[in-house]
Amino acid sequence: MEHRILLTECPDSKGLIAQITNICYKHQLNIIRNTEYVDPGTGQFYMRTELEGIFNDNTLLLDLDRALPPGSRRSLLSRSAKKVVILVTKEAHCLGDILMKVYDGSLTLDIAAIVGNHPELAELAQRFGIPYHYVSHQGLGRSEHEQALLKVIAPYQPEYLILAKFMRILTPDFVAQYPNRIINIHHSFLPAFIGAKPYQQAFERGVKIIGATAHFVNDQLDEGPIIQQKVAAVDHNYSAEDMEKAGRDVEKAALSEALQFITEDRVFVHGNKTVIL
Amino acid sequence: MEHRILLTECPDSKGLIAQITNICYKHQLNIIRNTEYVDPGTGQFYMRTELEGIFNDNTLLLDLDRALPPGSRRSLLSRSAKKVVILVTKEAHCLGDILMKVYDGSLTLDIAAIVGNHPELAELAQRFGIPYHYVSHQGLGRSEHEQALLKVIAPYQPEYLILAKFMRILTPDFVAQYPNRIINIHHSFLPAFIGAKPYQQAFERGVKIIGATAHFVNDQLDEGPIIQQKVAAVDHNYSAEDMEKAGRDVEKAALSEALQFITEDRVFVHGNKTVIL
Amino acid sequence: MEHRILLTECPDSKGLIAQITNICYKHQLNIIRNTEYVDPGTGQFYMRTELEGIFNDNTLLLDLDRALPPGSRRSLLSRSAKKVVILVTKEAHCLGDILMKVYDGSLTLDIAAIVGNHPELAELAQRFGIPYHYVSHQGLGRSEHEQALLKVIAPYQPEYLILAKFMRILTPDFVAQYPNRIINIHHSFLPAFIGAKPYQQAFERGVKIIGATAHFVNDQLDEGPIIQQKVAAVDHNYSAEDMEKAGRDVEKAALSEALQFITEDRVFVHGNKTVIL
Amino acid sequence: MEHRILLTECPDSKGLIAQITNICYKHQLNIIRNTEYVDPGTGQFYMRTELEGIFNDNTLLLDLDRALPPGSRRSLLSRSAKKVVILVTKEAHCLGDILMKVYDGSLTLDIAAIVGNHPELAELAQRFGIPYHYVSHQGLGRSEHEQALLKVIAPYQPEYLILAKFMRILTPDFVAQYPNRIINIHHSFLPAFIGAKPYQQAFERGVKIIGATAHFVNDQLDEGPIIQQKVAAVDHNYSAEDMEKAGRDVEKAALSEALQFITEDRVFVHGNKTVIL
After folding, report:
1. Domain positions in chain C
2. CB distance B34–A17 less than 8 Å?
3. Which end of chain D is more exposed for a tag (fewer CB within 10 A), N or C?
4. pLDDT > 80? residue B195
5. Phi and psi of D31, rounded to 5°?
6. pLDDT, tens only, B37-87
C-alpha cells in the first residue's frame, strides 16, 4: 500500500470530479482526502487527491490524460522529502528554525545545501552537517554573482530554493531558472512596505500590527504569489529594532507554514495568486 | 438554476465520491464546492456538496438511495433561511449581536421568536419587531417551567433553538425534543471551567487567556459536541468582572461563527464531536 | 470619593514621575494605575494617572503647572460619557455594533446624533431613539456639502466625530474643525491598499490576511495616526465580496477597540502616531 | 551609565510611587519605564522600574528600606544573562527552540547545562556545546532519581530550572529546592486537560482550539502560577497525533514568551498567580 498525491489542473467542466474519482476507483485506489477549487474568474479547476492503494502509474496517468480536456496538467507525487537549497545572508533565525524543525521531525525537507553571500552562517550549517557555500557578491556584478550562485546550486538539482532572509534582489534571468520554485520570506505584511527596511517604514508609520509574507519570487520585486502571511501586535513602545526582533517569530512562522504547504503538495500557482488545497 | 446543498453520511467504502459525483453529473448538476471527511476511528464518511443546476429532487434522491449503502443519511437542502427561536435570560450582548447581524445581512436566519425567563430583553426584541415571550421560572418546578417553554416554542416549529446566554440548565426531557438542534454559548473555553461562574473560576486560576464555546446541548452539562471556540488574551489587570466584559466579544464571536456554519449546512454531528465541512 | 484621569504631556526630564506623583500625594489622592511613555526620538514624556480621592481641581492643576516645564499640557478628566456624532453612509454594521455596545453597556458613549449622506440608516437610528440627519451630497459641491454637515453637527458640540463607514473624503477645512477628534475606520490594513475599493485590491493581490485600521483623520488621505488595527485570515476561496463580508467583523473590532481607548482617555497623539497608555 | 531594574513589592499605601520615584530622583537616576500594579483583593503593591544612571547600590537600597513599609521586598537587578539548567526527556522541539533563540540572540540566557532522563537529546546539546547529563530514572525510586538530578544540577547554581518537556512529575521536596524558580511547559490550555496525554484528551473531547501553558511548578500537579498561555485552532481533521504536532509550535511560543518575561525581570508571583509588569 502506497500513499500518493494526485494534483489536477484544467479548465472546469461538468463532471470533472466524477471522472477523476471514477478513474481512481477503477484503479482500486482509496481516496483519503479530496479538495478542489474552481476559480470563478478564470474557470480554472484545481484538485488535490490523497490516494492510498497499489499504483500502476503509467496506466493511471494514461487514463487521466484520456479523460481530461486539452491543456490539463496532472501529477502523481510520492511523499518523499523534497530536495531544497537554502539561500541566506547573515540572519540566523529563519535558517535556524528550518534546520531545527527538520531535525525534530516537524518539517520534512531534504536540505541539500546552504548558500550564503556572507560567511556568518557557515558555522550553523556545519552544526547540522549541511554543506555551506560562501559565494560573496563582493567585487562582482549582479549577473556575475548570480552565475556564481547558479553554478553552486545547479549540481544539487533542487526542487525548490528557499530564500531564508537572503538580502539580495534576484534578476529575472535567475528567477527564470526556477519558475515558481523560489520561496522568499519578506519581512512585511505585503503589499505594505514593499522594498527596503520595512520595519523602519512600519515604525515611522506607527502601525499597531506587523507582518511577514512568504511568497514565490517572480520578476516583480515583492509581487510574487503569496503563500502565507502572519502578523503580530506591536505598540508605541516598539522601536524599529524591537519590531524587527518581534518580526523574527512572525517571519519564521510564515515561512515554515509555507514550506509545510509545499512539502504536502498543497500549493497551486494561479496567475499572481496561490490556491492552497 | 438553483443552488442546493447535498449532505451525505454513511459508512466509508471505496468509490463513494465517484458514485455520488457521478449521480450529480448524470443529473447535469454542476459541483460548485465539494468537501468530505472520513473519520479514521469509526470509518464514517461525511460529504457536503454545493450543487448548481435544475433539480429533480425525487429522482436525484432515489438515485442516491440506490447507490448508497444501508444506514446512509442524505439530505438535499435549499438555501432558505433557517427558522430559529432564541432563548435568553438578561444579558443583551449575544442576542443583540445576532439581531444586528441578521439586520445588516451578515447572518441569514429567520428569527421566529425570542423567549426569556426574565422580562429585561423584551424591549430589545421589540425594537427589531420580533415576538418576545416572557416565561418566568418563578414559582415553577424545573419540569413545569420547561413545559411552559415548550408550549410557547413548539408552535413556531423552529429548526434550531439558540441559547444566547440562557442561564438555565435544560433537562434531558427538554433536550430530547430538539436533538442536536439546540446551540448553546458557554462562557468558558470548555472543558476548562465547566459549570457555574466560569469567569470567577478563570480569575481565581490566574489564566492568561479566556475563551467561549458554542456547542450543541446534550444530556451532559457542558459536554455536548463543540461547534466553535474563540479566545482572548487577558492579564493580571483583569478582575473577574473585566474578564466577563472582555468575554462578551469572545462569546459573540464563537456563537455567531457557529450559527454561520449552521446556516451554511456545514455541521455534521459525529458522536460527541462535530465535523465542519 | 471621585475617580479621575490625569493626562500629562511635556518634554522629558529627570524626576518628572516623582514630581507629578508627589503632587498627587500631597493632595491625598490615591493612584489606582499609572502608565507613562517617553519617546526616545523626540524626548517627549506622556503619562496617564488614574486617581481616586477628593479633588480640588484648581489647586491641583495650579500645583502641576508650577512643577511642569513650559510647553506642558495636562488635563484632569472626569469619567463621564463622551459626546459624539456618528457619520455614516449606507453600511449598517459599524453603526449597529456601536449602537448595540452602547445599549448593552459594553461601550460608554453619549451618541448625540447620527448624520448620513444617504437615508438608509435613518431607520436603524430611530430604533435606538437617536436623531438622524440626512444630509445628501447630491447636487452639492464638496465644500457646500461639508458646510451642510457642519451646520448640522456643530450645535451638538461633540467631542469626537466617528466615521462609521462614512464613504466621503473630508477636506482639510472640515478636518481643521475637529483636529485629532475625527476617528475613521478604514477597510484595509493600512498602509496597504490606500484609497478606494481595498477589498478588491486585496483580492487581486491574493493576500492571505485582510485587515482594518481605526485612525484619526488628518489632511492626508488614510495617513492619520493609527489607533488600532485588526486582521483576519482569508484564503483563495474568498471573492472580493467574501473578503468584504469577512472584513465587517474586523472593521467593527478595530473601531470599537479604538473607541474603547478613547472613552478611557488612553490615547495621546504624537506626530503621526498614537501612544496608547 | 548603567541600566538596572528595580523591583518593589509591599502592602499598598498612598504615596508609594512618589516615595520610590523620589528616591530614584535623589540618586540622579533616570526612569526609562515604570509599571506598577495594586492587587485590589490583597492590597499588595508591585512595581518594576527601569533605571539608567550611576548606581550606588548600598545607599539606594538603604534609602528604599527606610521608606518602604515593613514586609517589603525590593531588588535591584543588573541585566546580565540568567543562569539556567534545562531538564528534558526525549522531545527536541522546546529545547531546540531555546537553543536556537539563544544562538541567534533572540533570547538572553546562560544555559549552564542540560539534564535528561533519556539519552536522546545529548547529541543536540553537544551541537550547541552545552554539557548534557544523562540521569536515567531506570531502576531508581522517585526520590532517589530526584537526588541524582539535584546532585548534577546543584553545582551549576542555576537561578531557574526550565522543564522543556521533562516528562516526570517532581515531588514537593524537589520543588522546595527551587521555589518559584522552576518553569514548566504543559501541553494543554490549563486548567483544561490536567494530567497525562492532554492531546489525546483534547482529541476525544473534540475541541476546536488547543493550547499550551508555561507555569511555575509548585506542589500541586499542573496548578502552579501561570506565566503565559498560547493557543492554535484545530478541526475535525486533526488526529491526536496531528494535535500533538500542531501543539509543538504552541508549546514553544508559550515557553519562550514566558522565558522572555523572566529574562526581563517582569514576573512577580502573587499567590497562585503571576503579575507580569
Report:
1. 2-78, 82-276
2. yes
3. N
4. no
5. -90, 115
6. 999 999 999 999 999 999 999 999 999 999 999 889 999 999 899 999 999
**Distance (Å) from the alpha carbon of A17 to chain B's nearest alpha carbon:** 7
Tell me whether residues B104 and C92 touch, CB distance under 8 A: yes
Residue ranges in A114-239 assigned as alpha helix (H): 122-127, 142-153, 172-177, 198-205
Q: Do B106 and C93 touch (CB under 8 A)?
A: yes
**Residues of chain A contacting B30 with CB distance shorter than 8 Å:** 14
**Chain D touching partners, 3 or more CB pairs below 8 A:** A, B, C
Q: Is D222 a catalytic residue?
A: yes
Write down the pLDDT at residue D220.
79
Could you tell me whether strands C267-270 and C273-276 are parallel, antiparallel, or unpaired per DSSP bridges?
Answer: antiparallel
Residues B262, A276: Cα–Cα separation, whole Å:
25
pTM, 2 dp: 0.95
CATH class of B82-276: alpha beta
SS (H, E, C) chain C: CEEEEEEEEEECCCCHHHHHHHHHHHCCCEEEEEEEEECCCCCEEEEEEEEEECCCHHHHHHHHHHHCCCCCEEEEEECCCEEEEEEECCCCHHHHHHHHHHHHCCCCEEEEEEEECCCCCHHHHHHCCCCEEECCCCCCCHHHHHHHHHHHHHHHCCCEEEECCCCCCCCHHHHHHCCCCEEEEECCCCCCCCCCCHHHHHHHHCCCEEEEEEEECCCCCCCCCEEEEEEEECCCCCCHHHHHHHHHHHHHHHHHHHHHHHHCCCEEEECCEEEEC
Share of chain A above pLDDT 70, in %: 100
Average pLDDT over residues C89-103: 98
Active-site entry in C63, C97, C222, C265: C222
> Quick check: A209 and C229 CB within 8 A?
yes
Contact between A124 and A194 under an 8 Å Cβ cutoff? The reply is no
Report chain B residues whose CB lies below 8 A from the CB of D227: 208
- Chains near A with 3+ CB pairs less than 8 A apart are B, C, D
Q: Which CATH number fits domain C2-78: 3.30.70.260, 3.30.565.10, 1.10.150.130, 3.60.110.10?
A: 3.30.70.260
- Whether the CB of B104 is below 8 Å from some CB of chain C: the reply is yes
C96 touches B: beta carbon within 8 Å = yes
Q: What pLDDT score was predicted for residue B270? A: 87
Nearest to C96 among B92, B103, B253 (CB): B103
Quick one: cell of A116?
A: 550564503
Compute the nearest-CA separation of A92 from chain D (Å): 6
Would you call D164 helix, strand, or coil by DSSP? coil
A2-77 CATH fold:
Alpha-Beta Plaits (3.30.70)
The values of phi and psi at residue B76, to 5°, are -120, 110
Torsion angles phi and psi, residue C138, rounded to 5? -60, 130
| The predicted structure's pLDDT at residue C190 | 83
